[in-house]
Predict the 3D structure of the following.
Amino acid sequence: MYNPTNFHKLIQSHSVLLVNKKEHSIATGIFIKYNELYFVLTVAHILIDTALENILINFGIPGQEYPVKKAQYWKDDYLDLAFMKLNSFEAEIFQYKIQPFIIHNKLLGDFSTRLLKCAISGYPISLAYKKNSNKIIGETFLITTPLSLLPERWPKAIIENGKNPKDNFLLKYGHKHAREILYSNEERKTLIDPKGLSGSGIWIFDPNSENDEQPKYVLFGIQTGFYESSQLLAGTKVDLLFKQIESEYGEIIN
């Protein structure tokens, strides 16, 4: 029986399930607090060809069958990044069920070189099901893996597809990399189709602090896609999102 670490529980508590009612698609989002404002970070492709009212944000609250109010949004289709600003009153209420990842200055430094692993926790389509006509229930799935594939080992086809080491990163995910990946969720011990994990946070963490009261971890990027033939997950660095939020809503106040 898998017992989630304190770190695993925390990153699960920052994750929300997103449903595009018009396109019948699913993605993951990250609930964050920046100064006194609340946002959901995710991928731009979940917002394609739809209005904000068609995006359902499921916070895992029993009986939640209405769309959460979104004040405004921003997206970059090339980087496949987006954020939705939430109604602050509603967001504060939701915190009894999940908790936002609080962005502050000390998290923005790059300490990835001394932390050896990263983790993804999100809502793959294969673990989602309809409870009724209005609600979709999801199950989170945790992956931990070495941080990134070195740029000199990136497949040529992925570079030609527009990915670059300045903005993006690649993570190994597939059976040929099984020795390098620990994947766990309750009683599940198999690799799953990662569709729906798009929008999940890529969290860098210190494996030695996983069960500490305050585990050492930071949000590094957003998972944006899967190259099945190469068995690689693609992501975009999250600092590009933070810079956009800062430009619109001001610098971080500690």
